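Internal tracking record. Fields below are filled automatically when a chain is submitted to the structure queue. Please do not edit lines marked as system-generated. If the sequence contains nonstandard residues, flag them in the REMARKS field before resubmitting.
Queue: standard
Priority: normal
Entity type: single polypeptide chain
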Amino acid sequence: MRIGVIGRGEGLDRRLNLLAKAGIEMQAIAVNAPEQINGLSLLFVAGLDEQQSAVLAATARAAGVLVNVEDMPDLCDFHVPAQLRRGDLVFAISTSGRSPGLARILRERLETLFGPEWDGILEEVASARRNWRSQGLPPDEVSRRTRAMLGPSDFSAPAASAERASEIAGSARTGRSRGKIKSRSERDAADEAK
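SYSTEM-GENERATED OUTPUT FOLLOWS
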């Protein structure tokens, strides 16, 4: 499958970054060379005005190429959700093209809730899961232990701290939970009580 990207500025940079993070090889197409669209399977258009985008979308469709035009749902054959990646932990937010700005705002909020430490948290939880499954524990017990390992979730506060990630890591390494890992609000309340 050949995938092309055409555009300018920040919009183009966002699409290139999105595809690169997903491990997708793509062909950059010059705005003034629409003949390069022939032979593609998918085309991403970003950072261009509506008139240029409409011409490129029509050219692509005439060549049998599916098109996604950033922030112009009426010109799209498919929609790309806003994404947040923390290693193998991936959040995708879609409004089915109805409000890309809302999807972006929600993704930005998730970025504050799930910081870079969640890549490490995922690794520790995955390691514990492998250990529990190798012991022959049934899925419902693995799920119960995972919940106990993570503790209560308070996702109204910013991302889990490095301390919380460290607690989760320690719990996974020992195979024992030292009690539920406290949410940020629980830790803050305990600190205030001291």
